[in-house]
Design goal:
Elements lengths: L7 H4 L12 H4 L12 H8 L9 H4 L7 H9 L3 H9 L5 H7 L21 H15 L14 E5 L3 H12 L3 E5 L8 H4 L8 H14 L2 E3 L10 H5 L6 E4 L5 E2 L12 E3 H10 L19 E5 L3 H12 L4 E5 L11 H9 L3 E3 L2 E8 L3 E14 L5 E5 L5 E4 L2 E4 L3 E2 L3 H4 L26 E3 L2 H4 L4 H21 L17
Parallel strand pairs: 1-2, 1-4, 2-3, 4-16, 6-14, 7-8, 7-14, 8-9
Antiparallel strand pairs: 5-15, 10-11, 11-12, 11-13
Helix pairs in contact: 5-6, 5-8, 6-8, 7-8, 9-18, 13-14
Length: about 500
């Protein structure tokens, strides 16, 4: 029986409750988190909008299968700890996904309320209960099954690796996560700025995994420090899950890319997010001097938006985002686009770089106007250059955020591990088994760059498949490779 006192027709009259946020003029100068979160009154009002559908399509639209209707009903009962525990049955990182998951494309896209009104703010409610349990210090960690005696190595501590680790340790397996960098979290740590995902939140969620029994080891470059074969041999692991992501930067191969001042978004964000370069000299890591500079960011995805908003916070005089399609086709989240505009970032659409100009250091970007033609393989209309439309945009710093590719190290040092022509690992789309017995792979290293929640979904799928393998010892070759998805740029 539902805890919602309102009739369905009355629930449909309630508007979606907006997320409180810091004022643009305040947040554009600070790395403090932009969104402030719901209070109990806002959370209850938003929860009242849920229709408690008999067949909740919001659940089937969630890559990790969070029981949305159930946790919202617990919010209505005032049982916030119970609601958080309900989420953790399927999502071991609720405080993170409540902040950075593109709910509008996932669970909220399946919300029945959204057919006539704005969908339920599922992510906002998820964040509310996750923050509540952290605040009161009573995190509802799921129980752990009796020890199986089986050891699993996970390569990479990003969202796919963490999700897989959380599920496997609940099943009683011994799990150790190996991270190449000095800090844990993968793209959650080096790719997402503090103003979207505070490090205290990330560290707390990782600490919760430690309490569940997951072990972590940093500064281990699998393929150099230790190989996959050595993990099975000397280290005695029974299964390995490769979740290394796709972190190698891509460039456009246009003239001037070697000029000083032209950087990849990966390096820029890693220096700022992971190494705290914005707090130099407190943290001894220099960052590119954006202060008082004209900055151009190439791309229209979430990484481009993160880089642009970070440059602004580092004191840029002006930040221009240059994107070759229209705003409608931008792959970045609508909320992040809205925040960027509010903060004063200029988004130049239907504009494409053809060269970076300067002597030793970049001074300008030469661009072409574009128009949209027929749809391409991604389903979006292809940008077509307009002849004679060249012009120049001043820029002393250029940050390129047009996509990433696979780091080849693990593949190159693991004999018999099949990859596709783009060097992504081939894995069965259902079992995530690779061509090597006992080796599984998932997330961006298989599909190409995608979202945090899709990577977590792959981690959950891998955990179920690994558990089945460890309990049956049966192995079948992957019947079909999972292709790398084209990257939206």
């Amino acid at each position: 029986m539902s805890n919602n006192p309102l009739a369905n027709k009355d629930r449909m009259k309630l508007p979606r409750q907006p997320m409180p946020e810091r004022a643009p003029e305040e947040r554009a100068k600070s790395f403090t988190e932009v969104n402030l979160g719901y209070d109990p009154d806002l959370a209850r009002t938003e929860a009242l909008r849920c229709l408690a559908c008999q067949k909740p399509t919001c659940v089937t639209s969630c890559p990790v299968g969070v029981k949305v209707k159930d946790f919202i009903d617990l919010i209505l009962a005032g049982d916030y700890l119970g609601a958080a525990a309900k989420i953790r049955e399927d999502d071991v990182l609720p405080a993170i996904t409540g902040r950075v998951c593109p709910q509008e494309e996932q669970c909220e896209s399946g919300c029945v309320v959204g057919r006539k009104m704005q969908p339920i703010g599922i992510g906002h409610l998820e964040r509310f209960v996750a923050d509540y349990e952290q605040r009161v210090g009573k995190v509802g960690l799921p129980p752990r099954a009796p020890a199986t005696g089986k050891k699993v190595a996970i390569v990479g501590s990003g969202p796919a690796g963490l999700s897989c680790a959380g599920d496997l340790v609940q099943r009683g397996h011994e799990v150790r996560v190996f991270e190449a960098l000095h800090d844990l979290g993968g793209v959650l740590a080096y790719g997402i700025p503090e103003f979207r995902l505070p490090r205290t939140v990330l560290k707390q969620e990782i600490e919760n995994l430690r309490k569940m029994g997951v072990e972590f080891e940093t500064n281990v470059v699998v393929g150099r420090t230790v190989t996959i074969d050595e993990l099975f041999g000397d280290e005695g692991y029974h299964a390995v899950f490769i979740a290394t992501g796709a972190g190698a930067p891509q460039f456009m191969k246009v003239p001037g890319e070697n000029l000083n001042g032209v950087y990849s978004a990966n390096e820029f964000l890693t220096r700022v997010n992971l190494m705290r370069a914005y707090r130099f000299p407190e943290y001894d890591q220099p960052v590119y001097d954006c202060k008082g500079q004209e900055v151009a960011v190439i791309g229209g995805g979430n990484t481009a938006l993160d880089a642009a908003r970070t440059a602004l916070r580092l004191g840029a005089k002006r930040v221009n985002m240059i994107y070759r399609r229209s705003e409608k086709e931008m792959p970045g989240r609508a909320e992040e686009i809205h925040h960027a505009k509010d903060e004063g970032i200029q988004i130049l659409t239907l504009t494409n770089p053809v060269a970076y100009l300067g002597e030793e250091r970049v001074q300008a970007v030469r661009v072409l106007r574009m128009e949209l033609g027929e749809p391409d393989d991604s389903g979006r209309r292809r940008p077509v250059p307009i002849p004679g439309s060249e012009f120049e945009i001043p820029a002393s710093v250029v940050i390129v955020a047009i996509g990433t590719s696979a780091n080849p190290l693990v593949q190159a040092t693991t004999p018999g591990l099949k990859t596709n022509k783009r060097n992504y690992i081939e894995a069965d789309p259902e079992t995530l088994r690779t061509s090597r017995p006992g080796v599984f792979a998932g997330g961006d290293i298989v599909t190409g760059a995608a979202t945090v929640i899709l990577a977590m979904g792959a981690g959950r799928k891998a955990a179920a498949s690994i558990h089945q393998y460890l309990t049956t010892s049966a192995w079948e070759a992957a019947p079909a490779a999972q292709p790398a998805a084209p990257q939206p740029v």
